[in-house]
Specification:
There is one protein chain. By secondary structure, the protein is α+β, with helices and mostly antiparallel strands. It is built from two helices and ten strands. The strands form two sheets. Strands 1, 2, 4, 5, 8, 9 and 10 form a seven-stranded antiparallel beta sheet that branches. Strand 1 and strand 2 form a beta hairpin. The longest helix is centred in the N-terminal third of the chain and has 24 residues.
């Protein structure tokens, strides 16, 4: 019985040290983050009002938070109708992976391929990017409910938006903190 107590005690000490190590490594992550539907809907309406004016694109960060070893951003994006053109143009994020969830509208994305003579730019919102003409990209239609996964470095853009506007939520993995942190609704 004495050995059993020693084993239990040793196990308790070992588990306690594991808990403290884990807590120290993840001290910035205190709880999950809930973004209420009302906030998402209000952000969608704000974006639509932005593109009703002189803007053709609205990208509003809803949250950008520290999730431990990287940051995760959630944005609401709207774009005006895009007509097909002779050349495909787009961007590629140097450090951000993106997941688009289409919530309204439809169109055709161009993804992949390569840039012809890209220009390196720095966005206050999204960090370092490449911009230019996309050659040999793949055209992919998207509609409400579709999800597009765009890895960092992949050229992407809109070949065509067939509805008056398209709205989508973007989840951005940001391991190098390219974006400004936004932890709460403002």
């Amino acid at each position: 019985m004495n050995n059993f107590k020693k084993i239990v005690f040793a196990l308790f000490i070992w588990l306690s040290s594991f808990t403290f190590i884990y807590a120290d490594d993840h001290s910035s992550v205190n709880a999950s983050v809930i973004i209420p539907r009302e906030e998402v809907d209000a952000t969608l309406l704000e974006g639509l009002s932005r593109i009703a004016g002189e803007r053709s694109i609205s990208d509003i960060v809803v949250r950008h938070i520290d999730v431990g070893e990287e940051y995760l951003g959630v944005s609401v994006v709207q774009r005006d109708k895009v007509e097909v053109s002779d050349t495909e143009t787009g961007i590629a994020h140097i450090a951000l992976d993106e997941i688009y969830y289409i919530v309204a509208g439809q169109g055709t994305m161009v993804t992949g391929g390569q840039f012809k003579d890209p220009t390196k730019i720095n966005s206050d919102l999204l960090g370092g990017m490449l911009r230019g003409e996309i050659v040999d990209g793949t055209l992919q239609p998207v509609k409400v409910g579709d999800i597009a996964i765009i890895p960092k470095g992949m050229p992407h853009g809109w070949h065509e938006i067939t509805t008056d506007t398209i709205s989508y939520i973007i989840f951005r993995a940001d391991p190098t903190e390219e974006m400004n942190i936004k932890n709460t609704a403002e």
